Model the fold of this input.
Amino acid sequence: MGGEPEWEQLMTSAGWSFVEVAAYLLEREEREVVLGDLIEAGESAWLGLWDVLGLVARRQLVPLKSWRPWLASFGLALPASLLLMGFSVSISQTYQRLIHPTVFKATGLTIGPGFTLLVCNVLLLIGWSWTGGFVMGAVSRRTVRMSAVLSFLPCVFCLARFRVESLSRFCLLLFMFPAVWGVRRGLQISQIRLRTALILAVIITLLTIPTWSSSGSWIPNWVLSWPAWYLVATAWSGSADAKLYRSRATT
Amino acid sequence: MLGEFEYLLITAAAGLGDKAYGAAIREGIEESTGRKCSIGALYTTIDRLETKGLLKTWMSDATPQRGGRAKRMVRVTPEGVLAAKSFYDAVIRVSRGASWVANRNGSSL
Done:
């Protein structure tokens, strides 16, 4: 009988530890406010835990009401990762065909006739991956993890089924490096200058010209090129707003 | 137009005046409705109303009664007052003639 209060105390303190751990899923200021409210209301630890988890769930679900995370996930991350994986493999195969390894070992590079096209394709891969990653980071900051999972799922599937003996399966992931760099920049700055965005979009579009002659390539081209033009549109809108604020400030 | 819970929150905050903050508003809503008000519903609604410009919030200093934790203070803006008044007027108008309304046509039930 004498042990009951001690047991209750132990359970209460264990419960509050859970509440505090769960509250770490909230932002710092909100965590302080919520824990303070629970202490003030004198709620039991388990009800408090339920309340905190409810708030965490709502915080995670609220961004999904917007169109942005859906666009970033299903309009960009999923299709772009599939196409960029194919493009990465194509570049790896072209590289292997043009630069023969035995000649490479003995004398250095042997440049084949398609070398310029290969360079164009490498630049295109970097441009598409970086702009796609940037838009993904900028458009869905709070749901970037969901977009990342959706872009990585096809990669896991393809990595498991990859059966080209002459190529390492990591050739599939060539696009990941510029894409991750793009996501990081998108999360940091969300918008680039209009001139930079325009130059980037024009270069990417020009680099796609060699593929215009092949029928059926315009769909993947535009799926991968729209982020570059989206960056132009957002930069243009941002610079128009800045001009408006400047003119208001001077008048 | 406000939602029901948004109206309750604004009205509770307006009633508390300078002492309106999360826990006090929650207690006020629970007392007047007799229903449990979750912290999740409270703070996501406060955020939504603040985005609409109907509330303004700021952090207070930490107090010992709350284990040294700060409060999120709330003030209803003039736009919030107008929105709540418009909701209240609509409820009064739509309730005219309803069987449960006292003093209907000058008589009570």
